[in-house]
Amino acid sequence: MGAYILRRLLLIIPTLLGIMIINFVLTQFVPGGPVEQVLANIQGEGDVFSTLSGGSGDAGRAPQTQSSPNGYEGKYVGSRGLPPEFIADLERQFGLDKPPLERFLTMMWNYMRFDFGQSYFRSEGVLDLVWDKLPVSISLGLWSTLISYLVSIPLGIRKAVRDGSSFDSWTSGIIIAAYAIPGFLFAIMLLVLFAGGSYWQIFPLRGLTSPDWHQMSLLGKILDYLWHIALPVTASVISSFATLTLLTKNSFLDEIRKQYVVTAKAKGLSERRVLYGHVFRNAMLIVIAGFPGLFLAVFFGGSVIIETLFSLDGLGRLGYQAALQRDYPVIFGTLFFFGLIGLLVGILSDLMYVFVDPRIDFEKRDT
């Protein structure tokens, strides 16, 4: 197993390098960069997108351009009326006056030393920004994953045991209907019903804690935190029950129909002993081993809308705002950091397989 883990760790290097190369190359072709973002703000055009379209006042007329100091005619559409020296200074501050290859190699060298640099527009280190946003994303990801497993696994087992019954039918209908509801729509409904929208003011509208949270007792802090996180977690977890529940049910059904279960029952073992002593370990292999991957998916994906609706300042909003502002240090720094975490979680998932079922040997499989 040690040799397999070593090979997987070594494969992280070319995989992560490929991820960074692809995304770095793609950004070179995306219109609008940090310099254009600054120019758009200076000229009162709102953002880089209105600059690229010529601004609201220039509708239907081709925007005027001015040669940049690097000789790229029309490189910055929003640069009209500004001296070339100013634009050259902006390029130098952002490091965009260097060739792309040099910028990429410098960036990767810094990342190898876990130096992710400073944000262009926030005057704060990338790692500090990520650290500040982590509590929100961890809260949403961890609680959503735990609740999904705690509800879906017992429900899936029950549905497998009572396959074809009325219980199986109406629970399937409920979880599939919940899966079909968009998360943002359910979040809005929760806000309207329980956060003072039109009915009851039961839960807070925004934030992860109250303003006086630091002055509360330990129990008060825990209750206040759970009070704030209740609605966002409910909105993010509502659609996750269907896949995990049906996966658990189908896994148990496959195992229940195998010969070793028939043999165990023929020996006089109780149904509960057969179910949890023999079937459970085999059926839950794929479900439990997928826990790290599911947590990572909930942690990084689908949280932008939830964070925005509930005014939570997490990694989802950070990434979205960085993409809009073309804040390259934040974009590439978080991409490298979370790409590395994702690859390590892949190895952890394999270790979970071995933990759940020691009979699995990846080294023999590879040979």
Q: Summarize this, please?
A:
With 367 residues, this protein is mostly helical. It has 18 helices and no strands.
**How would you characterize the largest beta sheet?**
none
- Quickly give the CATH architecture of the largest domain: Orthogonal Bundle
CATH homologous superfamily placement of the largest domain: MetI-like
Count of alpha/pi helices: 18
CATH topology of the largest domain: MetI-like fold
Beta-strand content estimate: under 5%
- Global outline: globular
What is the radius of gyration?
Answer: 26 Å
Structural class computed from helices and strand pairing: mainly alpha
As a percent range, the share of helical residues equals 55-70%
The parts where pLDDT drops under 50 for at least 5 residues are 48-74
Q: Tell how many strands the DSSP assignment holds.
A: 0
Task: Report the span from N to C terminus.
Answer: 12 Å
- Mean pLDDT across the residues is 77
Q: How many domain regions?
A: 2
Tell me the name of the CATH class of the largest domain.
Mainly Alpha
N-to-C SSE string, H for helix and E for strand? HHHHHHHHHHHHHHHHHH
Walk me through this protein's architecture.
It is a single chain. The protein has 2 domains: 35-98, no CATH class; 127-366, MetI-like fold. The chain contains 18 helices and no strands. It is globular, with a radius of gyration of 26 Å. With 367 residues, the protein is an all-alpha fold. It has helices at residues 2-29, 34-42, 48-52, 84-94, 100-112, 126-161, 166-180, 183-194, 218-237, 241-256, 259-266, 271-283, 285-289, 291-300, 304-309, 315-325, 328-356, 362-366. It is 69% helix and 0% strand. Mean pLDDT is 77; it is low at 48-74.
